[in-house]
Amino acid sequence: QVQLVESGGGSVQAGGSLRLSCVGSGDTYRSSNYCMGWFRQAPGKEREGVAGIDSGGQISYADSVKGRFTISKDNAKNTLYLQMDSLKPEDTGMYYCAADCRGWWELLTGRTYKYWGQGTQVTVSS
After folding, report:
1. Cα-to-chain-centroid distance, residue 93
2. How confident is the model at residue 102 (pLDDT cuts 50, 70, 90)?
3. By Cβ atoms counted within 10 A, which residue in 28, 30, 101, 106 is the most buried?
């Protein structure tokens, strides 16, 4: 009933920037009513929570991206964003957006989210 579509990935050199977008849709979907998050997975690595935002605006970031990444929402457009600055090679991976977690206390825990997008690839070269 809910569909999420990511965009904005690509290849960039270390120190560069990218902005990811995730558009949600569905007969009953309203981003204002959901917690949402960004996750990434590199080859051979476990899925990692990057950033999350709940319906009230509470935000959590992984320690590895604090000060470099910014998560935000535009509820009128049902769109989630991830602004990524000062990118490092270790940021490389497939980035996924997710919606509808079980609670604000689990914003960076992937298993608690109900809906997922297909992902967008981010590659950072040294």
Report:
1. 12
2. confident
3. 101
Q: Which residues contact 105 (CB under 8 A, 6 or more apart)?
A: none
Helix (H, G, I), strand (E, B) or coil at 10: strand
pLDDT beyond 90 at 111: yes
Name the nearest CA neighbour of 73 among 49, 94, 99.
99
Buried b (16+ CB within 10 A) or exposed e, 92-114: bbbbbbbbbbeeeebbbbbebbe
Task: Judge contact between 122 and 91, C-beta under 8 A.
Answer: yes
One-character DSSP codes across 22-69: EEEE-SS--GGGS-EEEEEE-TTS--EEEEEE-TT--EEE-GGGTTTE
